[in-house]
Amino acid sequence: xxxEQIFQSLQKGKISPSKAKKLLSLYSIEKIxxxxxxxxxRKNRKGIPEIILGERKQLLDLKKIIKKTLSKNNEVLVSRIxxxxxxxxxxxxxxxxxxxxxxxxxxxxxxxxxxxxxxxGKVGIIxxxxxxxxVGEEARLVCESMNCDCLCSYDVGIAGLHRIFPVLKQFVESxxxxxxxxxxxxxxxxxxxxxxxxxxxxxxxxxxxYGYGEKGVAAxxxxxxxxxxxxxxxxxxxxxxxxxxxxxxxxxxxTKSTR
Length: 259
Hints:
Elements: H1 3-11, H2 17-27, E1 29-32, E2 36-39, H3 42-46, E3 51-53, H4 59-72, E4 75-79, H5 83-95, E5 99-102, E6 109-112, E7 122-127, H6 133-145, E8 149-154, H7 164-174, E9 178-183, H8 188-196, E10 201-205, H9 217-224, E11 231-233, H10 239-257
Protein name: Nickel pincer cofactor biosynthesis protein LarB
GO molecular function: hydrolase activity
GO biological process, one term: 'de novo' IMP biosynthetic process
């Protein structure tokens, strides 16, 4: 019995409130042998779907987790799939008649059964350089899994600062509720956007960089030390965390505005 069926049965008096509570609690966690415990109730509880970190999982285990998750939920996001397994997960998804959304320069996949409606808020996503696009795309997939509409603009870093102004103008006109800024090297773009935008800005330092402060350390330090108010920072390459935070903000604002 899925969640909708539980509520329908409760409404019709077929089950008691205590029985419904028990069924809902059982529904919220799915155990797959000794491999994983899936939080199948997260989307209903927090608005964030189950997200699977694929980089250290065996292909067979990953398939089992995806299949079990989609037996209870409409969508699942799989991040950092091993490159050697990426095409195999695509084949597996098509074989099971799942729908797929891919991202540029990333092995993350949004796998779903029914089309995900864009009933949430709007999020703007900016990547400073082409090397940062993969992290930005991962954030986009998370936002879209949370029903958000995303406006993306890539390769608009401070090496050519004039490129950012038309983008921000578009974001203002489209009334985005949060902006994700993905940047490596010194990560200065996040501070600049935060100093201009009147919405929350989430900075994502990426591991693009070399020499002193390599692997995203300089970008992280720069964003954390920013004197621009309104900037929140997530961990290096954490597109998933940035997407979830931005979508939560945008969806809460959308909910408030429609009441």
